[in-house]
């Protein structure tokens, strides 16, 4: 191959789509083996950010697994740096990071030697069976379990043992910590990748590992996760339509793109110049020098949070930041490799999922109603089809209105005897039937094509209904209250841990209710309302045999809709009336929902 010949790293395939942001879908196939042909050893340095905020909701043992899997990336260790942002400012998390730094000396060479997948030790040892002729396997597993036990014991006691406290100077920082919302910057370089002594048990260099708890003071707004990400920056489907959205995780950014620089046609990424940038200060000096960058006052009178870094003022800071980056002419690319690039943790209880989607939906709607509205902010900066594609997400919340109409009104009108749809015998029923059938047939086909199952698709439709009638509805109200000045921006952390009983029911594919919530009041009331509507329709058909066919002809589509909604809500009925485990619907929710549904039916009939 000629020395100056261009070596493509991706193959692009186009796929036809049905809706706006699928009109020109693209599948990209990477040629990883060509990286060395293209760049040789001049690969860029990569900084990986890991965020945590609460050692109870996000256990340190889980954070350690995330960090170790990042450190084990198949990438030159001298060009890899992992930063943990601890927004909870917990010495328990710091202790866990010290344990991770020590265990990485054994784990990283083990991963490289035996091509370990997945590279999270917890996931690996839980799923993998002991291989033959691998003498290191039992000893590495024992070391991990011992480390995990020490971390979990310390977390349970909520106290660092005295002998451990004296082992590292970093623990002295917590002598000056008042609370997790009132403390100085804590910055510790746990592994300095520049240090020739920072090697694993086989003498190979280790990646840099840094712990950061940015300064927090009660009188300064800390801007939640966006502020944490910017503090780290300061111390170092839509692809073919203009680029996919930034959704907070599982992605890579150019530093110039995040730091406010506009893309220009003459931009050149000079790897040699970048890799020749050296920092000669000792780790201890760097720690003290960089602390000011994570202070509360560093961003005052700067463009951080406005034009640089992640944008402040939105629960969905990732979406608005990605839009801002794209409006500065940077392009994004979606890559879905055969081997999963990232693995994460998702909520396993229904309420956690609904609360998480409420925050996302609220953030999207606030973006749409702000100066960052894609239709206006992106004018002449990004393609129209990309601006419209953003709106499909920004207007999630608005979908609650149409969904609530179809869930509530047809049922009540059926009880009242009011027809909403054409008769079954009328030719005008065909457009309704065509739209309903084609939409769901395409949705099912797409779900199966992506590797799903029919049962998975049914559950997806169920969650679609639950989210639209609760998360989207509450997000709309919260946004309205915020615009009127009656509510303040808040950030709810999703718990990453569940007790054994909940995990067991999750493995049995049982939806977890178990607690009281206004969201569950709405779900249960709507479910019972459609159940009563179905009973009323069946009564009309069976009690008057001579008029049964006439009733079916006149109300056929409404009856079908009620029956479909009853089928979707089967897990709700089980939780309300039949389940006896702790994951059932609380009795108070059951009583309230029955009263609300009966009251609505009574008012509709009379």
UniProtKB/TrEMBL annotation:
Primary residence: membrane
Stretches that traverse the bilayer: 393-415, 513-535, 555-577, 589-605
One Pfam family this sequence matches: Cellulose_synt
Gene3D superfamilies in the cross-refs: Spore Coat Polysaccharide Biosynthesis Protein SpsA, Chain A (3.90.550.10)
Bilayer topology term: Multi-pass membrane protein
Compartments, as annotated in UniProt: Endomembrane system
Keyword line: Cell wall biogenesis/degradation, Glycosyltransferase, Membrane, Transferase, Transmembrane, Transmembrane helix
Superkingdom assignment: Eukaryota
PANTHER family: X-BOX TRANSCRIPTION FACTOR-RELATED
Protein name (record): Cellulose synthase-like protein E1 isoform X5
